[in-house]
Design a protein that fits this description.
There is one protein chain. This protein is of the alpha/beta class and about 240 residues long. It has a single domain, classed as Rossmann fold, CATH 3.40.50. Helices cover about 50% and strands about 15% of the residues. Strands 3-2-4-1-5-6-7 form a seven-stranded parallel β-sheet, with helices on both faces. Helix 2 packs antiparallel against helix 7, helix 4 runs parallel beside helix 6 and helix 4 packs across helix 12. The longest helix is centred in the middle third of the chain and has 15 residues. The radius of gyration is 18 Å and the shape is globular. Bound molecules: guanosine-5'-diphosphate and magnesium ion (MG). Magnesium ion (MG) binds next to helix 4.
Length: about 240
Amino acid sequence: MQFAISSIIEEVKESNFLNLSKCISFLENQQEGSADFVAALHPNNIPVIGITGPPGAGKSTLITSLIGQLVNEGKKVAVLSVDPSSILHNGALLGDRVRMREWYLHPMVYIRSLASRGHLGGLIKQIEWIVDLIKSVGFDYVILETVGVGQSEVQVVQVASPTILVLVPEAGDDIQMMKSGLFEVANIFVVNKSDRPEAQKFVNHLRQALSERVGVKTDIVETIANTGFGVEELVDVIKKYHEH
Ligand SMILES: Nc1nc2c(ncn2[C@@H]2O[C@H](COP(=O)(O)OP(=O)(O)O)[C@@H](O)[C@H]2O)c(=O)[nH]1
Ligand SMILES: [Mg+2]
């Protein structure tokens, strides 16, 4: 199959994502010519926002609010969702679809799920390719969502810059997160569900833990994803990160 990048760029301008989708499938399946095709691209320097964290932390809800904020600013946004748990529990994917539904048909938004076939580690190259494609066709932001549960998910978010780790003010899962490599690679920490009474205590605890990371400055942003609280601040922090 042959793709002309110039015509995909023209189509994306008109919010026609059909050939972009076909081209993503071509790269996802590593069809012959994929590597050469990507090597000839000219990716723009736009933020690739990696969003990870335990299941249920509110990543999809946060992304929905984030899209709203960026679209309000007139930005064109692509969302790549790499969530292996969506395949194990179809309900999760369904829930995300319902939540993001308002954006599925919006002309400034392109949303695409990538199948992980239960083996994320093998998908890293394709994700890098697809991100390069999206960076080349006129989007202002890329959002890359994955569930932070294992080493291969750590690799996925390392394609991104900045990487955002979404935590909630409950012990269990978050202590696991701190032990995982994600705690080391995250650039921005979001404490979501900060409407919960124990939120402030958790933020203090996190700030303490992060102050021990020498030479790394990390922002902590408190959000309530389903009301949009804190999302404007998060976008500011993302922009500052990208400028540096
Ligand atoms: N109280 C509260 N609930 C939230 C918040 N953000 C998300 N939720 C809820 O938490 C659940 C899981 O959210 P979801 O976005 O699917 O999490 P994901 O698995 O990380 O993508 C949903 O029922 C959301 O409505 C928040 O800030 N506060
Ligand atoms: Mg989700």
